[in-house]
Write a structure and sequence with these properties.
With 177 residues, the chain is mainly alpha-helical. The protein folds into 2 domains: 21-85, Fe,Mn superoxide dismutase (SOD) domain (Helix Hairpins, Orthogonal Bundle); 96-171, no CATH class. It is 44% helix and 5% strand. A two-stranded antiparallel sheet has the order 1-2.
């Protein structure tokens, strides 16, 4: 199954002034598309050609011979999700259960926002920060320069938050214009 670049779920200028049309167009049409093109080239001859994107990511994750395929396929998957995390006129309150978990792990939503922004600012390269939760319901963050999600990232307090927020970015109150 060939990887394909999905269309954006909104117009290029829909996220202005937080992301310019030029930035969004470049990020989607050039940057994300490079993962698609490279992934399609790297999957050839691996026996994974007819697998879903998720299956390719899983199969290539621990195989050092497929590290390039993993990097490109996983970044393609990350970007598919990334486009869905943002929306025009985003913002607003976190869903109640999520807010409870953030407050439980970080002390307050404001502390989480501060730490999450700092994690992005201090991430070499893209500044990409992802957020998620472990089964034990404690938020955990990953700032992985090799982008070999999931795994290997530091597990200190500062790192925990890095996975609780990327999908929240569209839900945080918007900066004053």
């Amino acid at each position: 199954m060939a990887f394909e670049l999905p269309p954006l779920p909104y117009a290029y200028d829909a996220l202005a002034p937080y992301m310019s049309a030029e930035t969004l167009e470049f990020h989607h049409d050039k940057h994300h598309n490079a993962y698609v093109v490279n992934g399609n080239n790297l999957v050839k001859g691996t026996g994974l050609e007819d697998k879903s994107l998720e299956d390719v990511v899983k199969a290539s994750y621990k195989d050092e011979k497929l590290a390039g395929l993993f990097n490109n396929a996983s970044q393609h998957w990350n970007h598919i999700e990334f486009w869905q995390w943002m929306k025009p006129n985003g913002g607003g309150a976190m869903p109640g259960e999520l807010e409870k978990r953030v407050v439980s792990d970080f002390g307050s939503v404001d502390k989480f926002k501060e730490d999450f922004i700092n994690a992005g600012v201090t991430q070499f390269g893209s500044g990409l920060v992802l957020a998620g939760c472990r089964r034990r319901r404690q938020a955990e963050g990953h700032q992985d320069p090799e982008r070999r999600e999931p795994g290997g990232a530091r597990r200190d307090r500062a790192a925990r938050l890095r996975r609780v927020g990327a999908f929240l970015l569209h839900r945080l109150p918007q900066p004053a214009a």
